[in-house]
Structure of Proline--tRNA ligase:
Amino acid sequence: MADKITSREADYSQWYIDLVRSAKLADYSDVRGCMVIRPNGYAVWEKMQAALDRMFKETGHVNAYFPLFIPESFIAKEAEHIEGFAPECAVVTHGGGEELAEKLYVRPTSETIIWSSYKKWIQSYRDLPLLINQWANVVRWEMRTRLFLRTTEFLWQEGHTAHATPEESQEEVMRMIRVYKTFAEEYMAMPVIMGRKTDSEKFAGADETYCIEAMMQDGKALQAGTSHNLGQNFAKAFDCQFQTKEGVLDYVWATSWGVSTRLIGALIMAHSDDRGLVLPPKLATRQVVIIPILRGDKAAVLAKAESMAAELKENGIPAFVDDSEQNSPGWKFAEYELQGIPVRIEVGPRDIDKGVCIAARRDTLEKTELQLDATLAVQVSGMLSAMQADMFQKALRFREENTREVTDYETFKSAVEEGFVIAHWDGTAETEEKIKEETRATIRVLPEESDYREHYHMDEPGVCIFSGKPSSQKVVFAKAY
Amino acid sequence: MADKITSREADYSQWYIDLVRSAKLADYSDVRGCMVIRPNGYAVWEKMQAALDRMFKETGHVNAYFPLFIPESFIAKEAEHIEGFAPECAVVTHGGGEELAEKLYVRPTSETIIWSSYKKWIQSYRDLPLLINQWANVVRWEMRTRLFLRTTEFLWQEGHTAHATPEESQEEVMRMIRVYKTFAEEYMAMPVIMGRKTDSEKFAGADETYCIEAMMQDGKALQAGTSHNLGQNFAKAFDCQFQTKEGVLDYVWATSWGVSTRLIGALIMAHSDDRGLVLPPKLATRQVVIIPILRGDKAAVLAKAESMAAELKENGIPAFVDDSEQNSPGWKFAEYELQGIPVRIEVGPRDIDKGVCIAARRDTLEKTELQLDATLAVQVSGMLSAMQADMFQKALRFREENTREVTDYETFKSAVEEGFVIAHWDGTAETEEKIKEETRATIRVLPEESDYREHYHMDEPGVCIFSGKPSSQKVVFAKAY
């Protein structure tokens, strides 16, 4: 079973690493900075992929696959892009036993290689929009790594779209950041703030970057997804022009957007506890474990457990029985709490006599008596739905309790150690940089949602927390992963 | 629409490339030897992945993800393995702006990186079997490339399993090659011969390689999947020992097995024709296109087409309407034949008056009148099932017609230019090599299936086609992709 997991209170960072490794979600590999995503962790990624892929297709996107390698000259075509990415690339210099004439970068992101194809595919407005997504691995050389959150190689999806007008591309940017918000909140049960990044935090090569930001249990922020308005930057870099409806030539308008296996780290940090993983039911491959208490008429108990599992599965609830006799029920309880199975059901001979079983929810650890009758699947389904909804509400409450509106810099400095801080900013990169230097807090997001803006009075004018200069709006500061 | 596709008769190789590019399945990229899998091609891969992934899970496997990079010293640990793979690897020498202390190979296959993890995960027989699959990209430097069939980077799945006994690992090897055979025949409608490879054709590092071999329309063979019995080779290379039930230490027994995007090339070469792609319905994302003939009461025709599509979709048949007025019905017929939509339905005002529509099957181009009544979905479903079955039978007949049993070397030399040749072989690598040098034909497979062996009298003793020495069995020779 599990090695002991450090408590969150004792050492939050160590708790995270202990949990990831004990629950067999991921492990460091023998390759510097690269992780192995173990089957338990990969199963979560598969559930995420399935939900996201469906949402991408419902919004008109198709999947494709572009090369892993990018010629050095391609990366260099977009000035900000190469400045942002070149220093963190892995570089292939030899292939097939020979030194290459041109170095190949292992993709850190695929704008350049994709736009070199789009240039060939797009001639006229009739070829637009082009709405393509790719599921792939990418590599960014990292000095300090942390499983799922920051590794040299990670898995992600990257959408790359091409449009005839800036209005359409901006619509796409917003559509996709909203898809991410819906996914984060409805599947991951993780509330997120949707909004814009400041210029200094945006993607290298973008005109504008939108993001969703979540709060972890230590009060830090985690950027959970981004959607970029690339303007005509990459079309110009790759000379990708099209004939408009009006018959003139124009450069194509572009977006890109992505989420990665980082989301698994976010999921863990948002919900899990000192016993192990807490998984929202919608992302659990196995939602219910049934543990038979093998006393008295063992065969009858086991048969009951199996028939319960069969009934749940017939009703679309993935359930399984752990009937191993080498481990005690107590050991199993701990093991499945560690693994984050959303609902545990125990059933013994006395329960069967009474026509009941005991179900425990992983998030609250609350036990409920369920009736062993034809409504079993309905009862369990109700527990799972309630758990999904309650996890979101709990995380939302936590975020609200750990968000402070602050007006003086001294309070600001202590407040950013605890959670999100809403404060006035004078809009300059200098102030942003100085605050970062002094506190390590950054501007996470300029929220776009009116209910959030109103709740925190973000549109009331005031003075900058740092410079004292006039400020037209408040922004969200936090320390971040 | 499509550029003209060269006919198979005129130039089979050019036909293939023309088809792949005209149907927008894939394209060469600006990176040497690497392809772009375009949305139409990737959709086929997604259908293949879904079916295979389900079959892997039904046989007890789970997915995981291991690093892209393999330290040079790992590849070197298994002697045959490094000899086979090192010359065709892409090598990363720089990362994060600095030269690396140890070179990293971009994985050509993952046995070594995976066994370096398995060593940590396996201590006792209780940890076995370990049944893991990975969906990933791999890189093998290729001098002469061909879209899907041979490219520097390709996508695949690689299963890597660990077992306590050689019997169990051999069972796994056979289970998975049979899964591949089932997939090839039931989904791809492509008959395959299942059997063993000779020593010279087996995987670098395997004790034994099993394969499925298919015949393309030019009579050449294509290896469509392999399953390797790795013995204890990788366990020994990585010092991966476990405590047996009996309490002694032993090395773990291993298998690996894989199929790749090469299957898309096989699918095209097995079934397609001079008009374009012919897709078996089970691998078609869009199974039915409805083309309204927009004459007379256009709105009524369009409404009928839409209601037909809705009815088909409700019954699980993915159908869509092409109602664009800028292209003629004739243009659309050609376009969807090129794209390989299995069934095309045309419906016009006169059809509606008569209560019928005209459906055409892509494989035979045969037209059938369907009744526009409540049984429409049943009628279409019947067409799709018949098409799936007929495509398999046609390919099987083709293989049988192009397989010859040959007893003299002169006939052999001309026969291998046409198709598969069943002939006696003395069992030596020397003979195998000389035949390859003289004819470019190789021993594709030592069939394992008794019906195939009996049909071609493979177990009757005789004399080697080349050396005249005694031979205990016949084998299958062919030129191959």
Q: What stands out?
A: Chain B has a mean pLDDT of 96.
